Amino acid sequence: MKFQMDRGIYTMADNRQQSLDELRKAAKIKLEKQKDLENAPGGDIYAEIRDEAESEEYNSYPTLKADSGPEPETVMPYIPIDEDDYQIYDGGPFASQVEIWKKEYGEGHVFHIVVLDRHFVIRTMNRSEYKQLVALENTDALMREEIICSRCVLHPMGYTFKTMATDDAGYPGMVSQIIMEASGFSKDYGIEAL
After folding, report:
1. Phi, psi (5° rounding) for residue 71?
2. pLDDT, tens digit, for every residue of 32-47?
């Protein structure tokens, strides 16, 4: 299928390639900014989260009505790059997006998990992020779980404090525990006498 444009004729494949290139460029820019923040003196990538957690909106939970439920997930504008691209689960990201995340966070650091029939795509937490997390003052275990989820849950998009506040209480705890285990905080190890 071809489209007539002012500058010429473009195929759908050209448009898909351009979309994929834009996604890659955005991921690269995000990674560079994150590295700049980490390397800056006093760089704190959790400042935004801490500010949000200290806001009145976060600390004053609305009264939930019996029929109200969590807000619907943000629908990702994922675009398949070709006919062979597929969603890794219904309503989830396409395999091409997962490949971009793998390049951004490293091979073996992006996982698909299912908690009580809900799908999540997560990434591991690095040592720098963990050090900043434990250095946060006036945080409790529940807030740490929410911070871990808001940073390391890649899909559903927009898994934020507000989303978690209206969600079932156990999801952030379970998902953050899985993220920590995938990040190396596990009791699974081997000891061999030499």
Report:
1. -65, 150
2. 766 666 666 555 555 6
